[in-house]
Amino acid sequence: MRAPAEPAPPIDTDALIIGAGPVGLFQAFELGLLEVQAQLVDSLPYRGGQCIELYPDKPIYDIPGLKVCSGRELVHNLLQQIEPFHVPFHLGRQVNAVQRRDDGRFDVHTTLGDHFVARAIIIAAGVGSFLPRLLRLPGLERHEGTQLFYQVPEGLSFSGQRVVIVGNGPSALDWALRLAEANTLRAADRVTLMHRREVFDAAPEVVERMHAACRAQRMQFIAAQATGVEETAGRLSGLQVAGGDGAQHTLALDLLLVFQGLSPKLGPLSHWGLAMERKQLVVDTERFETSEPGIFAVGDINTYPGKKKLIVCGFHEATLAAFAAAARVFPDKAIPLQYTTTSPRLHHLLGVDTPAAE
Amino acid sequence: MRAPAEPAPPIDTDALIIGAGPVGLFQAFELGLLEVQAQLVDSLPYRGGQCIELYPDKPIYDIPGLKVCSGRELVHNLLQQIEPFHVPFHLGRQVNAVQRRDDGRFDVHTTLGDHFVARAIIIAAGVGSFLPRLLRLPGLERHEGTQLFYQVPEGLSFSGQRVVIVGNGPSALDWALRLAEANTLRAADRVTLMHRREVFDAAPEVVERMHAACRAQRMQFIAAQATGVEETAGRLSGLQVAGGDGAQHTLALDLLLVFQGLSPKLGPLSHWGLAMERKQLVVDTERFETSEPGIFAVGDINTYPGKKKLIVCGFHEATLAAFAAAARVFPDKAIPLQYTTTSPRLHHLLGVDTPAAE
To answer: Cβ(B298)–Cβ(B319) under 8 Å?
Structure first.
């Protein structure tokens, strides 16, 4: 018999960076050079933010000194660059509460129950948290987590269930095929993939497998749009749909999986009481600090006169914010500007040998 | 018979960038993306500024996305990146005069007689122009260009001359060897290399060649310091020197070549009437414009609250200055922010094919 779980002690950190996109990653680097310990939180389950979510394989041409790189390559390079600082990542969770403590530090809580105590918070949240695009139908919302899922929880049983999957991208097709091709003992009773048009945003071989599964009657695809829900004794029992020809009918179902992609949402952040302008956090250009001392904002999420939403600008903002955060963490110390080319101290922090003096 | 040379017509350009260091180079890139034509002037005979002059082979660790690169590699990468814009370079000359014209443009003149007419000037002059460190002795200055040289002009005759070379670096040794090893018809009468200590800052094989030339009595090296000059009938006839033992004597000479390295000087720039603070040009953080509308300053030469002399900050400054300069060049046009990842227009300017739409 196990004792009831004690709440884990809070995680102490000098700085908490919210957002693991390119600017958040470089933020960790600049803090590292100033010997400020940082931890990173991101709502996505992987690192790289927009670079990975929106354009992993598309070329970027305006990173100085990198004639061309993909979003994935840029993130890879930045992760390599921050390696010496061993920054802990806390992925797949949102910061949902921030409170200033009496000692000037911040209590920060996430949707997965983490509790951080941080001397400085640096928001590098880009366009916000990437959250699943919802299927908006009157009365549908209340079934989320029981019959409606935007992410499939581990252990969900499909056995004998009639499953409707909405979407036309990799996740939708992947789940449709996984269920259609499952062995019969654990198989769903019926698998229906639905999207408003018969156009798929997935690798050709995956689309071909899906067509093959339809021909083998292991699943079906219908081109239609959901218009309403049907309930029976409080349970979701059907989805009302309209086909391309306008014909209405009802798809009986037990489980509804929706994969309509992710869309950025500012989320809880917009309720922290920070000064905002057109959904951006207002910062100064000396410290990139928000209206709340100790909370900084860098990258696409901030605004100031002249602001351009460019990665190259975020890198600069992160650099100056690092100096300002360091001044908070080490209030009694002057924060010197040292050069990575010449400083033995920085070479030590970066784990590179200082060449012998000439 | 040639007609007397007409002065060349002035060179029209949208923007003139002063300084071809990393920030000046990236400035040309950002202007290029905004379709602003730029030309570049630098006092050094090569591109790259401090990166090449001060640390060509030393590692830099804090360029975002480049875990490590040498000064030379960074400059190489930036030159590659700006290739699509075919930016003309005017090297080995200083801008020595800037005047605003009635039409709001600027007349810009250089020490080599170039005349530019530019709609915007962007000063990316770093720590200033790298100019030769002078040998300061009373009365010596007036012989510069006739018997005293910090750079050897093409066609200078050494035949039968007694040449004294001051310095211990590659240029000093190179010139000493060139003269010592010349064939007898054009040879100098006597070649003396002088430095205060018998320590050389050149490749070992070059130092060895120099020692061999001394053993063969084709040249001599003396460890001494210049303390004064001697003149005969208005001509520089000798250099008074003090050896390591304190002994004084005079080196008779006809030509004096001084190679004591380069040192950055703010130069004429400090007399343009721009607002300055501790030898830096004061700029705003929205446009990075100096006190003179249309003249911008980016990189190590500028100052503003929070300023850090880091390349990563200069890249941001150049980006915002480019938008401000573009607004000057195209006063009737909105300057949109476009992304190199998605904009067909930018892909066209960069000379890269736009992948077919999905």
So the answer is: no
